[in-house]
Amino acid sequence: MDTVIDARGLTHAYPDGTTAISDVDLTIERGERVAVVGANGSGKSTLQLALGGLVAPTAGEVTYFGETTDAEAVRERLGVLLQDPNDYLFNTTVREDIEYGPAQLGLPRERAERRVASLADELGLTDLLDRPPFRLSGGEKQRAAVASVLAFDPDVLLLDEPFGAVDAHYRARIRDLVRDHDGTVVVFTPSLDAVPEIAERVLVVDRDGSIAADASARAVLTDGDLLADVGLRPPTTVRVFAGLLDDSDVPLTVPEARERLRDAL
């Protein structure tokens, strides 16, 4: 597999001396589906910004696609969704925000319009395309920001809490769009319920901003002691079945749980 992101000794401290991430080593390979989890305040968002080249590390470096440590040189290949959608929506209308990425890449107008229409339909934005972003609800802004990142089809998606502020219906839509993305996906989230459906590998960020674990989704999500140590809870389905089945048989998702129950009956 080709390495798309390689971080070595990545550390970032804020001016007040607070260390947000500490000596992080990680490698992301092309096509991987990775979740980065940790309690609120553990440094996940700072790690995303550092990997996306939006904050300069205090120490260490990130290499992109085995080619460069300059994120700006590969900016069009990185899709970075910030935690606050207000930081991503800056044009006059929702349509212009979703069109912005394809326009910067010089995609043919007709192709860009098809892409915008498809994403707007998937995310319930069709009737909102000509509305100013500041007039959207929190959930609508979240969906518009996700559409804006997906619109230019980057090689790597770095998504900070893409499911926040949206209802269950659109959470599932976003999950499916992210899961079906052709490139590499890294999702940063404090909530573990969606992780089994979008990630095969999970990195756990400890409270001090270091990496506490890097393993398969099953290995991490069924390790109650590890998760408790970093201030997290296993997914709901894991909590329900823990102690009743071996870790290798515990369902990670609701569909898996239904299958286990059918087998038991």
Automatic annotation (TrEMBL):
Membrane-topology descriptor: Peripheral membrane protein
CDD domains associated with the record: ABC_cobalt_CbiO_domain1 (cd03225)
Main subcellular location: membrane
Residues covered by the ABC transporter domain: 5-232
Pfam families (alphabetical): ABC_tran (PF00005)
Recorded GO MF terms: ATP binding; ATP hydrolysis activity; ATPase-coupled transmembrane transporter activity
Intracellular or extracellular location(s): Cell membrane
Keyword Transport assigned: yes
Coiled coil, from the record: none
A Gene Ontology cellular-component term: ATP-binding cassette (ABC) transporter complex
Keyword tags: ATP-binding, Membrane, Nucleotide-binding, Transport
Keyword Transport found: yes
Job description of the protein: Probably part of an ABC transporter complex. Responsible for energy coupling to the transport system.
Family: Belongs to the ABC transporter superfamily.
Protein name listed in UniProt: ABC transporter ATP-binding protein
Native species: Halarchaeum nitratireducens
